[in-house]
Amino acid sequence: MPKILLLLLLPLALLSGPAQATYVVGLGTGAMSSNEQEFFEATKNYLEQKFGTNEIQFMQPVSLTHLKKLIEEKKIEYFISSAGFARSLSQDGVRELLIYAPTKKGTDRNELGSVFLTRQEMTVRTLADLKGKRFTSNNPEAFFSHIVPLAEISYAGYDPKKFFSSVSFLNKNPEDLLQALIDGRTDVVALPGCYWETLSAQNKEIREKVNPVLVSSTSPCTSSTRTFPNWTLSSTKNSDAAFTRKLVTALLEMPFSKGTASWSVQMDLSSIDGLFKELKIGHFSDYRPWTLKEMLQKYSFAVLLFAVFLLGLLSLTLFLYLKLKRRSEQLVATLRAKIKTDRAMKEAEARLMALQKISTIDHMSSMIAHELPQPLGAVQAYAEGLLRAQNKQALDSQTLTEMLIKIIFQTKKVEDIVNSVRNYAKERKLKKTPSKVNGTVAEAIQDFRFAFHCDNLAINFFQSNAEPVCSLSPLEFELAIYNLLKNAKEALEAQNVKNPEITLAVNEDKDSCRIAIADNGSKVSDDALQRIQVSMSSRKSAGLGIGLSIVRSIIQNHGGKFSIKRTELGSGITCEITLPLFKAEHSQEIKPDRTIEAHTK
To answer: Which of 86, 170, 260, 409 is the most buried (most CB within 10 A)?
Structure first.
């Protein structure tokens, strides 16, 4: 039986579905004009028809204090009030949904101001004339009757808490404020401008005994203060999001009522936020501008760090400025010194250019006087040899021919020396050809032996087995070797060295060829060696050092290096020539050499 009863009741339960929620809309009493009252009544009828009284219910208008209590107790989900009242509850979860728009454009009379009202006999020309008077409002939460007038006093630079001699509240209808003013129970009241116009038009006594003061605008309504957004529909934090969307959509589709009023989403509540910030109420109740003293106390450590940083930055800036200034002065002084030095160098170059011609002539003369004796001495030696052979009647045809050939060869050298000097005077480049270094050095040794009697001088020549090849001007290079041999011989003779000896050695490195010419002269002091290295002066007492200077010039013109140092044994001097090797692919152009004995005495 119970099972049968359950089966019978189940379809009925499914048909009935879940219980439908009922949403309550509250309405705060306020100074409404007749058009606003008609619009809100039309809104109530429209929503009840749209959703039904089971889903939405409207409460009777209540005071703002009562309305705030209902919101706190979560007994209503939506309410209609001034925008200022709704904005003051934003911290309690209240959100503005729509704003009352009296016209299609949604701009005219959308923002309203308050008007100060006094008795007709009172004279009020400025806001200061209201100071010390009695002020009455209907409710502390009343936006246009209490909050907006106090904000206007604060904007003018007065303290709203001390401006009036007394502030009282009737907690009744707005009309009762005007009656208290007429009866002399108060001196100043404030009402929304549009509501004052409606009320004064309907009541002759009010129009004759009450006077609006400090009026700053009459459009769209009479106003003594700044204007702020008007009525709004707001939701509480216990409202349903799905129904809120349905409610907003329905109101936006609501047909326009008398006077083309409607609900609009176009709202800007920043002016109300500014008012709350000015009075430090609502969600700005904790707002208070910091003083410099408070900021320093709370952030003393940060301020100290910033001050240290700023001081360090200023010190660094000053240091860099002074350093930059000093550096700039140094650069200017250096620049001036450089300009002075450049000017002196140009003057010196001009003087050197003037002396260069004289120096060149002197050098050419020295070269001729220094180099010509070698081939001329050889010619003389060959001629004297022929004469001795002729006197001894030992001169045969073959000997005569050989000696004449040698004389002709030495004469040709004289001609080459003269041409070389002429080329030097004309600053021509040397004509160099690939030559074997062993043969060129041997040729210079042979010429030296013919020019000088070397009976008491041992000349040791150690050739390189690698047969190094360099790009040489044979005459110039032989002249350099000849000068080094001659200089060594004369130095040994000047030092009276027993068993004089000159050693020549040719060695090849990876990229260069070295020719060393050493003698076994006496030990040379450090000062003497440095003097020879720097000035190319001779070791001979009567020598001018011209030969060494010519040798260095010849070697440098061949792209080589010339140096003078002590021999490894500690006595005598070693002159070393370093020349770059000629490329192997040009070996077919190498000039053939003449060979002599490796060891000659």
So the answer is: 86
